[in-house]
Amino acid sequence: MKLMETLSVQKAKQVLKDNSNLENDEQIKIVKELVFHENTEIAVTALKILGKLKDKENVNFYLTIINGEYEEKVRKEAVSVLGRMRDYNIAVNYLLNLLDDRNPEIVLQAIRGLLVFKSKTEITDTLKQLINHRNEIVRDIIEKEFFPNSFDFDTKKDHSIVKKEYMNKIINGDALKILRSVENNSIHLTFTSPPYYNARDYSIYSSYEEYLDFLEEVFSEVYRVTKDGRFLIVNTSPIIIPRVGRKYSSKRYPIPYDLHGRLVKQGWEFIDDIIWVKPEASVKNRIGGFQQFRKPLMYKPNAVTEQLMVYRKKSNRLIDWNIRAYEDEVVEASKVLTDFETTNVWEIDPVYDKVHSAVFPKKLCDNVVKYYSMKGDLVFDPFVGSGTLAKSALSLERKVFMTEISKEYFERIMENLSDYAMELEFLDEETFLQGGK
């Protein structure tokens, strides 16, 4: 083993610093030896230093690292060094071959080096084939670079606009029918809590799969009408269907987890999971049997949490683009200058309504509206319930567009939003679909 490979990390760092200028062959030799140091950080730093040379005579040396049994970060840096040479022959003869590597990190680094030559047919034709790559991140990059038409864009000019036909309208009708009439790229934010599978006051589903199919259809339409790169927040939690008799057990359905995969397939990009924690005294007691008898296998904890799953409509633009689509004064006025949640665990007391069985606390709505929309944005909820989200959005100077199929709940919504009656239109489904006439 060579001396450089056995140096302590501290000593190796000093040697790299002393020889980082690569002023002569001896310094280059020393840095090359440190590429094989057992410490990954040292090896990567040595490669970064060597990469400054952009010396094509060292290509075989880098290939030895790439094709050897070395740490992923070391192999990845060696690929990066080849890419930074920006040499077409190296790209064709070596980087293209690395697209077949089993490690997606190596493939991604090779893609970065190859994208410099997007104007070259030989390279772009090969890269386009990766649209069917086994790795999802590779597929996403290829889609964004070569298949932009797969994204549903709106323009910077239109992004902050709210169409008047949806502004401050609350409709008593079927969410799907109403959504199908809405134009693409119309909604800035959707926050909703779908009716639970066991919520018999809404619909009777013949099976859990039928229930999930219904939600999938709704959120597919929500995806279409959502503006480029904007958010969907879905509040759900596992639910229990009570047992039908003493000799049968109850059944628990993991709604957020079963729904998640379907949303991602639609194009929604998962951003965050926020845990809403409620006081234990406010939830159904499931721990009583275990607490009394303390028998193993009987443990069922009290469910004090619900989830807010945060998704963003797939976009090849970063959030900065969305923010720049607004006038500076709108961004400034929308800043969250009061206290805010610093973690994904939000402790908020539930609230209750004499008509609706599942009501959003206003604080929960306020948080979501403030964190995920700008003033003047259009906030949508396909299952309005009691109207708390509408009240929150309006109080925070947003616009609302919402649907509720239950006539009883719709009347409760009108009652709860009486303070905003002058700003809102309450319509039935037929009237809305006919253009409000």
Automatic annotation (TrEMBL):
Domain DNA methylase N-4/N-6: 187-414
MF GO annotations: DNA binding; N-methyltransferase activity; site-specific DNA-methyltransferase (cytosine-N4-specific) activity
Entry coiled-coil feature ranges: none
Broad class of enzyme this protein falls into: transferase
Entry EC number(s): 2.1.1.-
Protein name stated in the entry: Methyltransferase
GO annotation terms (biological process): DNA restriction-modification system; methylation
A Pfam family the protein falls into: N6_N4_Mtase
Record lineage: Bacteria, Bacillati, Bacillota, Bacilli, Bacillales
Family recorded in the similarity comment: Belongs to the N(4)/N(6)-methyltransferase family. N(4) subfamily.
Keywords per UniProt: DNA-binding, Methyltransferase, Restriction system, S-adenosyl-L-methionine, Transferase
Keyword Transferase applies: yes
Catalytic activity: a 2'-deoxycytidine in DNA + S-adenosyl-L-methionine = an N(4)-methyl-2'-deoxycytidine in DNA + S-adenosyl-L-homocysteine + H(+)
